[in-house]
Amino acid sequence: MDSATLMNILPLVLLVVVFYFLLIRPQRKRQQEAAQMQNSLAPGARVMTTTGLFATVVAVDNEDVILEVAPGVETRWVKAAIGRVLTPTADDKIAATAVSETAAPETVETKDSDGVDEPVDRNNDEDTNSKKS
Question: How far apart are CA 68 and CA 72, in angstroms?
Answer without folding.
Answer: 7
